[in-house]
Amino acid sequence: MLFSEFKNGIKYQRIIGNEPIEITAITDNSINVEKGCVFFLLKGNNTNGSLYVKEAIKNGCLVIVTEEAVNENVCQIIVKDVKKEMAKACKIFYNNPQEDLRIIGVVGTNGKTTTSHVLSKIFSFAGFNVGVMGTLGVFYGQNQIDTGLTTLGCISLYKTIYEMVKAGVNVLIMEVSAHAIEQRRIEGLHFDALIFTNCTEDHLDYFKDMQTYENVKKSLFCKKFCRYMIVNSDDKVGLEILNSNDDKVVSYGIENPADVFAIDVESSKNGVSFVVNMCDVIYDLQSKLVGRYNVYNLLACCACSSLFGIKIHQIAYALKNISPIEGRSDLVCEFKGASVFIDYAHTPDGLRQTLLAMRKICKNKLVCVFGCGGNREKEKRSIMGSVSGVLCDFTIITTDNPRFENCDEIIKEIEKGIIPITKNYLKVSDRKTAIERAISSLNAGDVLVVAGKGAEKYQEIKGVKIPFSDREIILQLTGKNGE
What we know:
The chain is 34% helix and 25% strand. The chain is of the alpha/beta class.
């Protein structure tokens, strides 16, 4: 790209140094700098991008975009707001890819992944070419890319959208995390529709208090950022969004009045069924997804799909044929007449909703194995202990991703919540051993939930990701891995 074209597309205060004729790439990561690259110097929470300027120049950086001049012999574009101009630059460099497809965002503490993937299947069944971005990775065509992030960074996001457009994708469904909103990773995007699932306690190690966390999520739901809003009317924050927007908002729910709602909800280990009233269109729906909380996710998908012209019979056909989402209330196997599930629940409300759903389908004893992540919000640990203590017949507290914390100390903090409630629990530091102890205790009619990691294929310990899969461990221990 010609540098003149690049600089004319952003708003700058001045340019220092000799301007190049062409640029070859853009990045905000000095490691990814290549010859002829533009490097956006960002101020982070813990580090300043200026620390990486020398590395960027060494790797071939021709231009630095920065809010403050640096003492280096390189072309510098001085701007007022690097993140704002970086988004503009992405549009220029990647030919404004969002103009060539429709973008649906899913916001919420829980349910983002399930809602995104169910929605993608509905749109695919209806003939759309769909791309998905989220916790499980990036999916489009035959491509499946593990990113390690719920929402990509700004430059990676625009580049991926560009690649999707080249591959023929015409609908993008993406999970939008609160971190991504607050860090402005989605700067410059305008959504054709935004879905709000719920807002419950999480990430308070980062956001500090619930009000801040809620406000960040709510901030995206306005005409400036989206055309349509699909909002859960049974959620407190959802109601606040509904009350602050007077048009182009579709509500969904079970308890409170809503445009799209469910009645006659039935749940079993094989899925859910219910009658949906979708703006006075009534239809029987069935799904292999388990639990009342998934009914909310399905209602959100129904409401959103209808806004894009997909008919109820097409939606019903898709829902009936969609398999459970990997790692989300996912039935791994039956063993000795018991059912063994894995789930990603890693928040108090997520664990509560999962265990409530399992309680309803459990005919005998409900057992839960779970831990909490290290170097993350500590306040929720005892709460999750009490949730499992109240809802389960037996709990095994174990390790999750301890990261740089002592796993036994994390377990002790979880234990504080379960001690006042029940003595029916064990502490087992090794996660594989914990799962083995739980499986060995099962009898006919029992349900075992191994929670917290879902489809993750690693444990993060002292900065190292060690291969570990709850699913593979369960199949190995039950002798089902050859089936």
